[in-house]
Amino acid sequence: MELSAQQLAELLSGIARAQAALVHGIESALPGSRTDHILPAVQVVARVRDHPYATLTDLPSRILLQYMGRAGPNLEALAQDLERLAQGIAPVPPRPAPIESKPVSPDMTTTLDFVIDPASGSLKER
């Protein structure tokens, strides 16, 4: 039997929905347990802060986090992530926009420019 990326995304999504239902039940019985204990533990397992892009290991936990939020996961995006991960293709991070210098002087005609004075360690205007 072969599963498509879309079918695997739906399967993982269904498992995460069941896990989210369990978390909801625990929260109903023990108010505060979701935010104080469960959510931080799932965030650690999902490695959200360490890795901006999911790995195959992180993906199920990240799906659960999406169900624990306000909206569930986007199944099309999830299927695309699964295809990318199965092929071993690393995501290309977006390039940051160049920072443009803009006038910030009181009369809005010049740009303020500061340097650190090595002797005193304070900021001085050039």
What does this molecule look like?
The chain is mainly alpha-helical and 126 residues long. The chain has a domain of 83 residues. The protein is 49% helix and 5% strand. A hairpin with a 6-residue loop joins strand 1 and strand 2. The longest helix is centred in the N-terminal third of the chain and has 25 residues. The chain is extended, with a radius of gyration of 23 Å. 13% of the residues are buried. The model has no long low-confidence stretch (mean pLDDT 83).
Q: Layout of helices and strands, plus pairs?
A:
Elements: H1 5-29, H2 33-46, H3 59-68, H4 75-87, E1 114-116, E2 123-125
Antiparallel strand pairs: 1-2
Helix pairs in contact: 1-3, 1-4, 2-3
Low-confidence stretches: none
Extended strand count: 2
Tally of individual helices? 4
**Shape, principal axes of CA atoms:** extended
| Proportion of residues in extended strands | under 5%
Spatial order of the strands forming the largest sheet = 1-2
Helical proportion, percent range: 40-55%
What is the residue-mean pLDDT, rounded to a whole number?
83
Structural class: mainly alpha
Biggest sheet record: 2 strands, antiparallel
Distance between the termini: 70 Å
Give the H and E element order.
HHHHEE
- Oligomer status: single chain
Whole-angstrom Rg: 23 Å
